[in-house]
Amino acid sequence: MRVVVDLSRCQGYAQCAFLAPDAFRMHGEEALMYDPNPDDSQRDQVLRAAAACPIQAILVEQLEGPAMTVEARRS
Fold first, then answer.
1. How far apart are the C-alpha atoms of 60 and 52, rounded to whole Å?
2. Positive or negative CA dihedral for 42, 52, 13, 56?
3. Rounded CA separation 73/33 (Å)
4. What is the third-level CATH fold of 2-74?
5. DSSP per residue, 3-63
6. Angle at CA of residue 44, ends 40 and 46, nearest 5°
7. What is the average pLDDT across 53-72?
8. What are phi and psi of 44, to 5 degrees?
């Protein structure tokens, strides 16, 4: 799994850091740091974190297949 965050859109709400603290963390009050290749054992947490992003700045991709946006996963 690969995670990409559009940091120019990120507003620092930190929902992702709350829901998947091993993959996302806040550095200071506004800067998001994240693991671009979290372990597959974190998949559910990362997908919940991406879904919780108020501005949908997080894209989760499957390494084996095509990109899977949170919207595609919901359908």
1. 13
2. positive
3. 24
4. Alpha-Beta Plaits (3.30.70)
5. EEE-TTT-----HHHHH-TTTEEEETTTEEEE-SS--GGGHHHHHHHHHH-TT--EEEE-S
6. 80
7. 74
8. -60, -45
pLDDT for residue 75 = 43
In 3D, which of 43, 45, 51, 54 has the Cα closest to residue 72?
51
Measured between alpha carbons, how far is 51 from 60 in angstroms, rounded to an integer? 10
Identify the CA nearest to 31 among candidates 19, 14, 48: 14
34 close to 5: Cβ distance less than 8 angstroms:
yes
Say how far apart CA 43 and CA 29 lie, in whole Å: 26
Residue 1: other Cβ atoms inside 10 A? 18
* Start-to-end C-alpha separation, the chain: 19
Which amino acid belongs to residue 21? P
Contact 10, 16 (CB under 8 A): no
15, pLDDT greater than 80: yes
